[in-house]
Amino acid sequence: QELQCGAVGRHLPLGGLCLLQRLRELFRDLGVVNLPRKGPSREFLFLCRALGPEGSGDVLPPASFRWGRFLRLAREKGVSAFLARGPGPGRNWPEPVQRALREDYHRTLAENLLRLSSVQRILEALALRDVPVLALKGVDLLDRVYRDPGARRMIDTDLLVRPESCPEADAVLTGCGYRVLAGHRPCAPPG
Q: Which of 2, 19, 60, 71 is deepest in the core (most CB within 10 A)?
């Protein structure tokens, strides 16, 4: 029995797992979307290796490797800040690439600390009004998975409240200076 990986077009034993499928799973677990449809480029494969548990700080790709494309890909997939963490990944990479990744990390850290400060203010205001809330996705992942506020860029904040608490949550958010975007409707109670 064989498993065909359509994107690569190779047949693998059923017990094996297509490389592209493994890469897609890794990126999905990291919350990355918009994966390439065709076979992965060298830069994409190297990026996946760099994100893996063994990293790739000691490994240099061939001289023809396109570092600019690698950096654009890391930024596009939202993992450039993650690559800059710790002493491992990238220590043998070209200095301009290391510097760009560090800059991405520090920018992400600053943005996330500001966002987390706002989230903390909202959570405290909701608690004062006895509105149960659950932080989802980015906020939760930074704390439980990454354990580093600069590791993953947050572009929004996802909070879950019970439907019956929506009017009170709306009032709290309005009191914190937030407003409903045009074309969106405010939280509405059930019924």
A: 71
Alpha carbons 112 and 104: distance in angstroms, whole number:
12
Residue 172 CA to residue 178 CA, distance in Å, equals 9
Q: Where are the beta strands (DSSP E) in the chain?
A: 2-5, 10-13, 133-136, 158-161
Phi, psi dihedral angles at 163 (to 5 degrees): -55, -40
The region, left, alpha or beta by phi > 0 then psi within -120 to 50, assigned to residue 186 is: beta
Residue with tokens 């200076």, as numbered in its chain: 177
The whole-number mean pLDDT for each consecutive block of 10 residues of the chain, a chain of 191 residues, reads 36 43 65 61 78 63 83 89 71 86 92 90 92 85 81 84 88 86 66 53
Cα–Cα distance for residue pair 95/189, rounded to 1 Å: 54
Q: Crossing angle of helices 67-76/42-51, nearest 10°? A: 60
Mind spelling out the 3-state secondary structure of 48-75?
HHHHCCCCCCCCCCCCCCCHHHHHHHHH
Spacing of C-alpha 172 from chain mean position: 28
Rounded alpha-carbon distances, angstroms, from residue 168 to 12, 60, 72, 162, 163: 55, 55, 43, 10, 10
pTM for the whole structure: 0.68
